[in-house]
Amino acid sequence: MSEASATATSVRLMALDLLAQREHSARELQDKLAARFPELSVDAVILPVVEGLREDAVQSDARFSEAYVHYRGSRGVGPLKIAQELRARGIERTLLREALAGVDWDARCREVLLRKFSVRAKAPAAERARWMRFLAQRGFEAEQVRSALRQLDQDQDSEA
User: Are 126 and 148 members of one domain?
Assistant: First the structure.
């Protein structure tokens, strides 16, 4: 076995180890491999290994995006923040939109609000503004926040 193929094999094994732990985007995988093998050329060795893993369907940006949206969404993070994080990880806009489309963000926004605050009927405007700021910081769109507050008001009106 030549030295070049031995190097590519060790890079592939490291990539498989990383992917066994969790899904990675292609850019994340490339960056981690470049950090672990600083003496190797990214274009000559690492990039072909990552491309080979993509062709073999071992690495998939679509799978990574879906898993990432599920994980971060379940932690109470909104679509704007998740989209920003995915773009930073090299995910294309079409994959990003597809991954985000599978979630009811209005309902998720309402869940986050109810989990964080003890909401009550006829809350003062200052308290409602605090709720809105919190949800906006978590990455929810303004319309999703307004929808969550409207739904909350409707639920409390129907209980009265």
Answer: yes
